[in-house]
Specification:
By secondary structure, this protein is mainly β. The chain has 3 helices and 41 strands.
Length: 690
């Protein structure tokens, strides 16, 4: 585990963290975050149905358009924009797990070690390192049939090549098609929400000695969706037409997303300390088209909103830490990041049948920049072999610039005169960490964790309107947690449990000015999140594996937000289930000296949730019904082969991941867009390793 930026055993980490094995996800055909999020305690997901997923940990979220509350990193490089102006929490990489070493989900604020946007927690992707040990590789093909939809298929491959005794190269690639299952009645097209994805990774490791290593990585992934996954329903998720039908303009919800990441990780052991350098360059482009006919119904019956976003982000982190095993352990570091984003949004009148543009009403062009500098450190004192205390601090400051130019008849201040506005912001934050830890024995511990997180503020794009705020500040969370984790002496039984209380102060909330219809952010109100999480695993000598996860969470406003937010004290935060959990059972069955059969199943449950905060009081918050899904798997594996037959969502449930009124701003709506999980899928995969 590297949750604390040091290699340590999971049972020794005084953090609530779940480690996922990517090969297990691949065997179960769980290749996207929405396929496996319900198996992680405290993790929930808001899917927009347009290639945009919002990650929520422990209920810390306020809706679908805001600065991110959960941080994401790949090989310790932070990815994703830090600002809502370019969809910061929407456009995060959803990596195919085939060539990952593991996925770590850290629950609770992680502001001291991981900085901005880790209000609720962090998702870490760790890629597989090249190895000088031997030539090795793996190939996989899979296919599946989606009930009420089409056929999915995929191909994946990876190879590890030792180039010298101290030099190795690893290359991997994948291509997959996820079948659609939603029909667009407007265009009379079936399965419009099909998705294709392809990508690859190159990694070079040079380790001339045990004291020095350099790992260079290049990752690229592109994804294309041909239509939105949402179904047209009422506020109770009852379809207005057919079971999996939508009434949208042709191409509504179609998107393209491309991610490129370059990394350089350098490690140097100095004897008295270890030096680590992590350099990253992340580039992302995203485009989508969404039916927004209700928004400008007074001007044209059919309108489409186009989004074009591009972000380039570089980061550099240097860390110096004491060697493992010292009585007094310490870590100090510095961090710098700079991101520049270009965003263009347009609203066009389009033809109803073809969605071909007829007239452009507005084009909004708003570039932004974000720059942050931070210093951080922690120290751990081992008062005895069993008792230790860790304390840490982080100081961060950032500044941001925003400019907007609007053209078109609805954007210009007068014919031929574009609307222009610009603003900037700056803020600074201090986060802390205090963790007493007591080892109950060699294989178990109890810990308390007092930690904080922060989310940067930013400029508002309404600076020409003097009555509205030109910027908003950072908000912060403070976490008070008690945890227990460990395993039996033989490693057969593992357990982790935690109880927490999170205070969220000066929440950033998006509000809409009723006069101008401009949206902007303010810092108002407070909230809390309280709950408990548990994870159990058991492996018998007869090759039976059992696992169970569960979480209980209450996330509510603790005082009244302003009237423009349309929420009150005691209202639940958006998309946060009170109860969720999963149960899994797997059994290996020896077939002969070469082959082992396996059979298993999983059951996941996501409880009732409320939708996002309305921007119009005439649109009440919808209640998303609880749902449970069952998966089955059956197959056989040998030293070089694995064959797997799987069934996902066996009972063909219609679980909803989000619901949004079709006319969210200016008028009431009885029509909603509901994003649902895929129907029953049955498939087959085959893996060849060498």
């Amino acid at each position: 585990m590297t949750a604390q930026k040091r290699a340590e055993w999971l049972r020794d980490t005084p953090v609530a963290v779940t480690a996922l094995r990517p090969m297990t996800l691949i065997e179960r055909n769980q290749v996207r975050l929405q396929d496996y999020f319900a198996e992680v305690p405290g993790l929930s997901l808001i899917s927009q149905g347009e290639g945009s997923d919002i990650i929520v940990i422990r209920g810390i979220a306020t809706g679908t358009f805001s600065n991110p509350t959960t941080a994401v990193s790949i090989d310790d490089v932070p990815v994703g924009s830090s600002t809502a102006l370019v969809g910061g929490q929407l456009h995060r990489p959803d990596l195919d797990p085939f060539d990952l070493e593991r996925i770590e989900v850290l629950r609770g604020p992680q502001g001291t070690l991981y900085g901005a946007s880790s209000l609720g927690g962090l998702v870490k992707y760790i890629t597989t390192d090249p190895s000088v040990a031997r030539l090795a590789g793996r190939l996989q093909v899979d296919t599946g049939i989606v009930e009420h939809g089409g056929i999915s298929h995929g191909f994946r491959g990876a190879i590890n090549v030792p180039l010298a005794s101290d030099l190795a190269l690893r290359a991997s690639g994948f291509s997959r098609r996820t079948a659609g299952f939603v029909d667009n009645l407007t265009s009379d097209r079936s399965d419009v929400n099909a998705i294709t994805a392809a990508g690859g990774r190159l990694s070079l490791l040079w380790a001339p000695s045990d004291q020095f290593s350099v790992k260079l990585g290049a990752l690229h992934q592109r994804t294309r969706g041909y239509g939105g996954t949402f179904v047209t329903t009422d506020d109770r998720q009852v379809p207005i037409r057919g079971d999996l039908d939508q009434l949208e303009l042709p191409g509504s919800g179609a998107f393209r997303n491309s991610t490129t990441l370059l990394t350089a990780n350098v490690g140097l052991r100095l004897g008295w300390a270890d030096l680590s350098s992590v350099t990253g360059y992340w580039r992302n482009t995203y485009s989508s088209d969404v039916d927004q006919s209700a928004l400008l119904s007074n001007y044209a019956p059919n309108t489409m909103l186009g989004n074009r976003m591009k972000t380039a982000k570089m980061s550099q982190e240097l860390r110096l830490s004491s060697p493992v095993g010292e009585t007094f352990g310490w870590l100090v570091g510095g961090f710098y990041t700079h991101e520049r984003s270009l965003t263009v949004q347009s609203i066009d009148a389009v033809q109803a049948v073809t969605a071909k543009p007829i007239k452009t009403f507005i084009i909004a062009d708003f570039p932004t920049t974000y720059e942050e500098v931070a210093v951080f450190g922690d120290a751990t004192v081992h008062f005895s072999p069993r008792f230790s205390v860790q304390a840490g601090l982080r100081y961060s400051r950032n500044h941001q610039d925003y400019a907007e130019t609007d053209t078109g008849p609805l954007g210009e201040t007068s014919p031929g005169v574009p609307y222009f506005t610009s603003s900037r912001s700056a803020d600074r934050s201090v986060t802390f960490l205090i963790t007493p830890q007591y080892r109950l024995g060699e294989h178990s511990q109890i810990y308390a964790r007092f930690a904080s997180g922060y989310r940067p503020g930013g400029p508002n794009g309404v600076s020409n309107l003097s009555q509205l705020p030109k910027s908003f500040g950072a908000d912060r969370t403070s976490n008070y947690e008690l945890g227990l984790k460990g395993e039996s002496a033989d490693g057969a039984f593992g357990y982790e449990a935690s109880a927490y209380s999170i205070d969220w102060r000066s929440i950033q909330l998006r509000v809409v000015d009723t006069t101008s219809q401009f949206s902007y952010f303010v810092n108002v109100g407070n909230a809390f999140s309280r709950g408990a999480e548990i994870a159990l695993s058991y492996r018998t000598r007869r090759r039976l594996q059992l696992s169970m996860t569960g979480s209980y969470n209450v996330a509510e406003f603790s005082d009244d937000p302003p009237d423009t937010v349309f929420a009150r004290k005691g209202d639940s935060l958006p998309f946060s289930p009170r109860w969720s959990g999963s149960v899994s059972i797997d059994r290996d069955i020896p077939l002969d000296s070469n082959w082992t059969g396996f059979i298993g199943g999983s059951l996941s449950y996501v409880g009732q949730r409320l939708s996002g905060l309305p921007t119009n009081p005439q649109n009440p918050r919808a209640t998303l019904r609880p749902y449970a899904t069952a998966d089955l798997r059956l197959g056989a594996r040998s030293r070089g082969w694995a064959i797997n037959l799987f069934a996902r969502n066996l009972t063909d449930r219609r679980g909803a991941l989000s619901i949004t009124p079709k006319s969210a701003l200016t008028s009431a709506s009885s029509v909603y867009k509901t994003v649902v999980i895929p129907p029953r899928t049955i498939g087959l995969s085959a893996v060849r390793s060498f």
